[in-house]
Amino acid sequence: ATTVRAEVSGIVQAMPAREGTQVQGEALLVQVDERDLRLVLRRSQALSLQASAAIKRHEANLAKAKDLVRRLQRLDKDKLVSVESLDNARIAVQVAEAALAEARGQAALRHVEQLTARRDLARAKILAPFAGRVSRRHVEVGDRVAVGTPVAELVGAFPDETEVALRVYGHRHPAIRPQANTDSELVVPLG
Prior knowledge:
It contains two helices and ten strands; from the N terminus they run ββββααββββββ. Mean pLDDT is 88; it is low at 160-166. The strands form three sheets. The chain has a four-stranded antiparallel β-sheet with strand order 1-8-6-3, with no helix packed on it. Strands 5-4-2-7 form a four-stranded antiparallel β-sheet. It has a two-stranded antiparallel sheet with strand order 9-10. By secondary structure, the chain is of the alpha+beta class. Helix 1 runs antiparallel to helix 2 (83-123). The chain starts with a strand and ends with a strand.
């Protein structure tokens, strides 16, 4: 039997598969309440929008700082600006570049948080990894699960006595040596 485990924390909202039920691969075994996970996703989306706005603001600040340096450099040719003013403007460009780099890093972090929230929301639906029979349920509706909590046990669709006959063409595979270059039949138990 394979133990199926929760991949997110939350309250079990539904368990459509009863013990002894045959299920197809990717059939819903357990539904974890999605409300909190949806809120986390919405929050991450809002923070992503905020990070994008911060990038635009810092890009504008950088452009303004670079423009000031260009204007002061033109004035400096005629000695109409102090060295200190030009140095301060150059430092302001460096500060604006650093702020923009930080904003881009925050935006990347927010993007990863959003992807994680989407993944966790999808994991609220605990699906059968293969076709089989639910041999045991470890939780019931209303139970709280954490990441790694066993929720059900699933037995594969092949009973122990199932066998499959395969035609093996030995002359095409060096590990199999049938007699006198003839084909062989191999019976493999799947249980």
